[in-house]
């Protein structure tokens, strides 16, 4: 304790008390800082994984032995901060690339289909236009088919005339003229070719019917959607 008796002693005593107070504050601050450091948990994580031998490994950094498998980073309380997945293998990369290619092909196909539908709707804005186009396409084939059938009928009549001429040589076919035999062979070849041509035209007619039928189903959906959109636009304009 400081008991000053002279003015100089009083000043000295006051200075000693001031220095003592500063020392106490400094010590208190040091104790508080140390206590705070002890109570603040570490922010560094713990990495854990199961290696190829089935062992549970842990480390304060990513574990090299588990570079090919999943690792977990845990916080100080044991909660999972994140899951570290291994880099994809060559097989996984190839599968991912294949999926991307398939998605690209599907996207291209879808874009082409939308473009085709847009052009189809522009070409046939209503059912009447589509029906007229169907009838016109059939008429072209039908005209050719009728001409081909008429020619086939003419070839059939020619064969009958050749048969009548050959009837004179029925008892001795070897005596039939070579020119007559050649006409018969040519007629048979022409009738076969004409029959194939007629069959092709009939298939073309069926193909046209099938194409326009498929288009009609698509167009009915497009016409309905267009009518709905037009109705919505009209309603918005009235508002």
Automatic annotation (TrEMBL):
InterPro entries: DUF4124. Keywords: Signal. Residues 62-73, 90-102 have a biased composition (Basic and acidic residues). Residues 1-37 form the signal peptide. Residues 60-113, 219-239 are annotated as: Disordered. It comes from the Bacteria. Pfam families: DUF4124. The keyword Cell division does not apply. Residues 44-99 form the DUF4124 domain. Residues 226-239 have a biased composition (Polar residues). This is DUF4124 domain-containing protein. It comes from Tepidimonas charontis.
């Amino acid at each position: 304790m400081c008991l000053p008796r002279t003015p100089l002693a009083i000043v000295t005593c006051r200075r000693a008390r001031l220095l003592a107070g500063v020392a106490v504050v400094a010590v208190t601050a040091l104790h508080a800082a140390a206590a705070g450091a002890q109570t603040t948990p570490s922010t560094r994580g713990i990495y854990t994984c199961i290696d190829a031998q089935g062992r549970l490994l842990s480390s304060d950094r990513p574990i090299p032995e588990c570079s090919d498998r999943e690792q977990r980073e845990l916080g100080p309380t044991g909660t999972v901060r994140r899951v570290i997945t291994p880099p994809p293998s060559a097989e996984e990369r190839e599968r991912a690339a294949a999926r991307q290619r398939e998605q690209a092909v599907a996207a291209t196909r879808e874009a082409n289909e939308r473009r085709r539908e847009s052009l189809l709707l522009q070409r046939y804005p209503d059912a009447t236009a589509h029906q007229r186009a169907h009838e016109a396409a059939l008429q072209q084939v039908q005209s050719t088919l009728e001409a081909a059938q008429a020619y086939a009928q003419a070839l059939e009549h020619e064969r009958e005339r050749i048969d009548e001429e050959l009837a004179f040589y029925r008892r001795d076919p070897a005596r039939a003229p070579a020119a007559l035999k050649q006409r018969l062979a040519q007629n048979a070849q022409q009738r076969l070719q004409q029959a194939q041509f007629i069959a092709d035209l009939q298939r073309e007619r069926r193909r046209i019917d099938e194409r326009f039928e498929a288009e009609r189903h698509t167009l009915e959906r497009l016409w309905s959607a267009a009518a709905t959109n037009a109705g919505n636009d009209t309603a918005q304009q009235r508002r």
